[in-house]
């Protein structure tokens, strides 16, 4: 399928939108709302809010769909977390988190703006073309109702677009022969992925796990002795993004060139405001 969009237009739109979804994972509102329903551990809260759309799933399903978390960390909290709060209770709490987070980061004027309503309409239109087949996290979220409030409708649509691209990206990672640690290490080496410190702290991997992943990538010729990507490593990461774009093209083709450009413009403005409001912790992204 040949794309009628400018090169990387879909990817740029996705990257402009994604922070509007992912900011809630780092929001103080998440800890507060999940603690209110009995989930006080930060890891348990993350696993619960992201997997709740799939129902009372076990650790195996979460490890499979989240990909880069150590299974033992997942199993420490799942399925036990569902004994504390049901998926329905967690989903309601997550909606409150999204609402509070967006209002705090963007301000009431932006939340109530015509631009917010326009962005929500465009993002939802794009999500109409997302595909359920072999995309479990997207498919589960696609079964949830669309919120009435425009800022929550936009958040819902960004969630659909995020998980749709993410599910497709896992297919690319598997085809590239990268295991969870190797995927994290190689992405961190680009300078655009989660930093090693954050990756190990939140994904459950040890320093030994990380260093073993580095060794495996060196043996494949993808990392050099300084931990930097080789030419082959750069080429592989670039090709993986292109292939992910290809698997994720449908929603942006559906929206069309003008719609994608306008949604990117609107999302860029909202995301800039969120970043200025310190939506994400320092040191999250990078090689350090």
Automatic annotation (TrEMBL):
It comes from Streptomyces graminofaciens. InterPro entries: HTH_67. This is SalK. NCBIfam families: SCO6745_fam_HTH (NF047719).
């Amino acid at each position: 399928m040949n794309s009628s969009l400018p090169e990387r237009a879909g990817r740029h739109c996705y990257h402009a939108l994604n922070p509007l979804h992912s900011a809630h994972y780092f929001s103080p509102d998440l800890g507060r709302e999940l603690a209110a329903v009995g989930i006080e551990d930060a890891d348990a809260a993350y696993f619960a809010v992201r997997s709740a759309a799939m129902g009372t799933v076990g650790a195996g399903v979460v490890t499979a769909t989240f990909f880069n978390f150590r299974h033992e960390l997942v199993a420490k909290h799942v399925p036990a977390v569902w004994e504390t709060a049901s998926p329905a209770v967690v989903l309601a709490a997550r909606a409150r988190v999204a609402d509070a987070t967006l209002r705090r980061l963007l301000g009431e004027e932006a939340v109530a703006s015509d631009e917010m309503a326009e962005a929500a309409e465009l993002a939802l239109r794009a999500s109409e073309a997302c595909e359920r087949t072999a995309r479990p996290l997207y498919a589960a979220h696609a079964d949830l109702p669309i919120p009435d409030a425009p800022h929550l409708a936009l958040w819902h649509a960004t969630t659909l677009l995020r998980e749709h691209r993410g599910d497709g990206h896992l297919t690319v990672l598997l085809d590239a022969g990268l295991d969870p640690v190797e995927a994290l290490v190689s992405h961190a080496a680009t300078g655009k992925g989660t930093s090693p410190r954050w990756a190990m702290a939140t994904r459950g991997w040890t320093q030994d796990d990380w260093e073993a992943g580095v060794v495996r990538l060196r043996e494949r010729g993808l990392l050099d002795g300084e931990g930097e990507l080789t030419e082959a490593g750069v080429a592989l990461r670039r090709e993986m993004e292109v292939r992910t774009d290809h698997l994720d093209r449908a929603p942006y083709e559906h929206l069309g060139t003008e719609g994608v450009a306008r949604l990117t413009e609107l999302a860029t403005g909202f995301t800039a405001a969120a970043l200025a409001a310190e939506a994400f912790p320092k040191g999250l992204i990078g090689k350090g």
